[in-house]
Write a structure and sequence with these properties.
It contains three helices and six strands. The mean pLDDT is about 90.
């Protein structure tokens, strides 16, 4: 069974790990900027399809805490391509404006 769990350590960095038993098969990390945006700066997974669940997990977590904007600070072009496919970012912008609206309007990627 695959689970996505938040790192229990209290730090300035938010991390969610996707696990299959004890094996880590994906991870997403970010931090809250001074502008109160979530900045996602790490995204790793065995399979690119896992990106969707990982990103949704961290977005949902911060959305429930009043954060409504995410900035994707991901340089890898293949990862950006997949993030566009899941509609987290666009060709013109690496910013997701309105996390709440995204969840209201979106059906699973």
């Amino acid at each position: 069974m695959i689970s996505i769990l938040r790192n229990p350590d209290i730090t300035d960095k938010l991390c969610f790990e996707m696990k299959d038993g004890d094996r880590i098969c994906g991870k997403v990390c970010g931090y809250i900027s001074n502008d109160l945006d979530l900045v996602i700066d790490q995204l790793e997974a065995e399979q690119e399809l896992f990106y969707d669940g990982l990103v949704r997990s961290i977005l949902s977590f911060v959305s429930l805490r009043g954060i409504d904007r995410a900035v994707f600070s991901i340089e890898d072009e293949r990862k950006k391509y997949r993030l566009k496919g899941f509609r987290f970012i666009t060709e013109d912008s690496s910013v997701l404006e309105g996390i709440n609206k995204f969840f209201e309007e979106d059906t699973c990627g």
